[in-house]
Design goal:
The chain is an alpha/beta fold. It has two domains: 148 residues, Isopropylmalate Dehydrogenase (3-Layer(aba) Sandwich), CATH 3.40.718.10; 162 residues, 3-Layer(aba) Sandwich (Isopropylmalate Dehydrogenase), CATH 3.40.718.10. The chain is 48% helix and 15% strand. Strand 5 and strand 6 form a beta hairpin. Helix 4 packs parallel to helix 5 and helix 6 packs across helix 11. The longest helix has 32 residues. The protein is globular. The protein starts with a strand and ends with a helix. The relative contact order is 0.16.
């Protein structure tokens, strides 16, 4: 298995990206292709380049975080993102990870790889590890701000396939995010999407609407929403995790200064464990589903541990053959629909 890593993308590139890529290659026994400027990669990690699992593909351009995504994709064909997507398209790698410009990554994937037949919009499938057991999938988590009801139906199908093949849940519970559990609650998009998901019948196990406060209760395995709402939920959880981490550090300082032990120490441990579950570094990234290839978007502030975990996620995605699974299910669904 060969996984491409954008060595130029993210706030801490290239040093932290390379460090995480090396750890991931060693720990998960995969080959990693670092995509970026060879001179910078050698400068940052010369001692790691003797590792037989690590190689470099030259990419002399970088798409910055503040650039217009589509314009940058077209004007910078030798950028690390575009070169990485091309490697994926040509079958030279089985997955691509980038912590770089989100819009550019998705734009390049859309233009270069194309969409799976029957899928009209790609969607970000984020993994939320907030329950202490099996994680929850949130789809769409930011790719599509404006959606139509049948887009959400497709998101549900893709999320269901990912939950089965990658997470290993035999019969995922699929729910629609709303402001109430009743069928008639929600915006026009939610109400109409609910009707489509309910009518989908045997395609997946739709359990109805859930509210945002149901996420920690793990009432569903796959939570479907539009990209605008999903991204707000994702960023809220991320901010909450950071706030809890900050409180944890404050608590430890107060406990140490006051020589507090016992229950205070136990509370600190519990806070630490819970905060880690809201930390983007735990899973390392989110998958872009619907395109013809395995694309993982790592957080822009990813350090080595997050990149290492993103490589594991990419490995699981490749092993789950998620792209082929979604494509097969879409084709089978179209065939059965035409026969009916």
């Amino acid at each position: 298995m060969i996984i491409a890593v954008d060595a130029a993308g993210g706030d801490f590139a290239p040093a932290e990206i390379i460090k995480g890529a090396v750890r991931g290659a060693n720990e998960y026994d995969v080959d990693v292709v670092l995509v970026g400027k060879k001179s910078l990669i050698h400068l940052s990690a010369a001692r790691h380049l003797k590792n037989p699992h690590i190689s470099i593909v030259e990419a002399n351009q970088v798409i910055e975080a503040d650039e217009s995504p589509m314009r940058a994709v077209v004007s910078k064909p030798d950028s690390s993102i575009v070169v990485g997507v091309n490697l994926l398209k040509e079958g030279k790698v089985q997955a691509l990870i980038s912590a770089g410009n989100t819009g550019a990554l998705f734009g390049a994937a859309y233009l270069k790889l194309g969409l799976i037949d029957g899928v009209e919009r790609p969607a970000i499938c984020a993994i939320l590890d907030i329950t202490g057991s099996t994680p929850i999938l949130l789809i769409d988590a930011g790719a599509n701000a404006d959606c139509k009801p049948h887009f959400l139906l497709q998101f549900a199908e893709m999320g269901d396939a990912f939950a089965k093949k990658v997470i290993g849940i035999p019969e995922p519970r699929v729910a629609l995010l709303s402001n109430g559990s009743e069928d008639i609650k929600g915006s026009r998009l939610v109400v109409e999407s609910h009707e489509l998901l309910k009518a989908a019948g045997s395609k997946f196990n739709f359990i109805g609407n859930i509210e945002a406060n149901d996420l920690p209760k793990r009432k569903a395995d796959v939570v479907v929403t539009d990209g605008f709402t999903g991204n707000v939920v994702l960023k809220t959880l991320e901010g909450l995790g950071e706030a809890v981490q900050n409180f944890k550090h404050l608590w430890k300082a107060v406990s140490s200064a006051g020589h507090v032990h016992g229950t205070a120490l136990m509370s600190s441990v519990e806070i630490d464990s819970w905060a880690r579950k809201l930390d983007f570094r735990e899973y390392g990234g989110a998958c872009l589903l619907g395109v013809k290839g395995n694309v993982i978007k790592a957080h822009g502030r990813s350090r080595a541990n997050a990149i290492k975990n993103a490589i594991n996620l990419a490995r699981q995605t490749v092993e789950g053959n998620i792209y082929a699974t979604i494509q097969k299910e879409k084709i089978d669904g179209q065939d059965s629909g035409s026969n009916g």
